[in-house]
Amino acid sequence: MGKLLIICGATASGKTALAVNCAQKLDTEIISADSQLIYKGLDIGTAKPTISERGGIIHHMIDIIEPWEGFSVFDYAERATAIVDKLLSEGKTPIICGGTGFYINSLLFDLAYGNAGADKSIREKYNRLLEENGKKYIYGLLKQVDEETAEKLHVNDTKRVIRALEIYEASGIKKSAQHDRLIPKYEYIAVAINYPREELYRRIDRRVGEMFERGLVDEVENLLKRGINENCQCMQAIGYKEVVNCLKNGDNESTMRDIIKLNTRHYAKRQITFFKKLPNIHWLEPECATAERIMELFDGNR
RNA sequence: GGCGUCAUAGCCAAGUGGUAAGGCAAGGGUCUGCAAAACCCUGACUCCCCGGUUCAAAUCCGGGUGGCGCCU
Questions:
Q1: Which nucleotide lies closest to A118 by the C1' atom and the CA atom?
Q2: pTM of the predicted model, to two decimals?
């Protein structure tokens, strides 16, 4: 059975170029694992790889939905798994490249997600209850139906509290009653580039600066002009929500830049925390992060 | 030179006699259908220095140092 190559890690750490190099060596295709690259029209702020940066390699899971559409891990897992399987059946090595750890997990592991889909009306109902009665109230509701899950969650973590409530209401089964075993569906080897924190932050700063030079503000204004609501999921992405906000406040560009840099650094930190827990991940020092080195690791693992 | 004012964690900052709020930054972490989202945890053996008053001082008094403002 074939094996997957995962290239993950923090934003601005050089995943794309590395993945393209590997894909060229392996004569294969890349499957993006990025929750924002899926949107058409969000290019600059998401640092979507340009055609030339893609180096002639086919990239899947990029530009697959419209900005006003919603998307979730479940959708990702469904679509991306199909592509993985297709590539494997062709004898190719799927390369997964991206910084959304949750999406990568959804590909690697057979998660059940509580065996209950998102239910808009249930969510609305609990969101209303949250607004009317507060966090403690809905947390209390969860405690009544699924004490075990409630214990694991913090009262303030309303998103997950509501999701747990949703699972119970939609399926009649407690979230805590469903235990997924995290057994990888595929053999894989994961690599991430391990920049020293300060250097990673410098790279982020530089990249954010470049986004403004390329016209991030115009991109956001165009999306708004096209009628994309600022509350859309895609507009919550770093770079977009800040520009929208600053535009409203009349802040200058340097303020926008600083906020985006800061939020991106926070994001990178969270990504690193997430990937630390991914089994079988190799943290490569920047100077060792080459396609050649990865091929060695990959073959040695075969 | 004189007068006034301020001096608390990397930054902003509350506290004005009873044993150091809070915010930001930074670091650590959680993550099972919104994940570039959402959420959690961590920090001053000490309040510029020295001396004094007091059972007790970041808080009061004296001196010093430094910043700021005004005056000559």
A1: B33
A2: 0.94
